[in-house]
Amino acid sequence: MQRLDKNADGEISIKEAVADPIILESFSRIDINGDGLISRHELTTVHVRRSHGSALN
């Protein structure tokens, strides 16, 4: 999160996500609320889903 959050606002924008191809490719699935930003909560939620074998829909 810190590596990508260049402006230190606590969220990853699409412009910041271009630095990580995996995050960029999955951006719309990680951005659960669709606000165009990935929060720490959204990143954690996706990580928990993956670790429990749930698909990202």
Could you explain the architecture of this structure?
With 57 residues, this protein is mainly α. It has one domain. Helices cover 46% and strands 11% of the residues. It is built from three helices and two strands; from the N terminus they run βααβα. The chain has a two-stranded antiparallel sheet with strand order 1-2. The termini are far apart. The mean pLDDT is 90. This is EF-hand domain-containing protein. GO terms for molecular function: calcium ion binding. Residues 18-53 form the EF-hand domain.
Write the layout of secondary structure elements.
Layout: E1 11-13, H1 14-17, H2 21-30, E2 37-39, H3 40-51
Protein name: EF-hand domain-containing protein
GO molecular function: calcium ion binding
InterPro entries: EF-hand-dom_pair, EF_Hand_1_Ca_BS, EF_hand_dom
Descriptive tags:
calcium ion binding, two-stranded antiparallel sheet, 57 residues, EF_Hand_1_Ca_BS, 3 helices, globular, single chain, mainly alpha
